[in-house]
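Hi R.,

Here's the chain you asked about this morning:
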Amino acid sequence: MRRVIETEGAPKAIGPYSQGVVVNGMLFTAGQLGLDPLTGIMVEGGVKAQALQAMQNLQAIIEEAGSSMALVVKTTIYLQDINDFSTVNAIYAGFFPENPPARSTVQVARLPKNGYVEIEAVALVPGARG
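And the predicted structure, written out as tokens:
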């Protein structure tokens, strides 16, 4: 059994995928870019602004699923430039002040919409049936 998660607090999918899917009490999110959920346009302000928006989008999906940032168990961060690691890390840390999840961070050749950063997560969903 699976439950698809959709929220207006994150950008609509720009392809054939769901914002998130809950299966066996676990939420798996799609990667989130720094897209404004209202316009679907990349936010201005460089990697810092995009990282903040990506994390806010991720949080909206996680909360819509009935979970919280404190229940995130794993994230993956994709960076256009690994030299942006410390900038993105500072934004990311603000969302996980205690007991941060496991994480992988990699540099990729290119991200959708020429983004600087994309972030995905896996979280526990208490009492989830889907």
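The two ends are 5 Å apart (CA to CA).

Let me know if you need anything else.
M.
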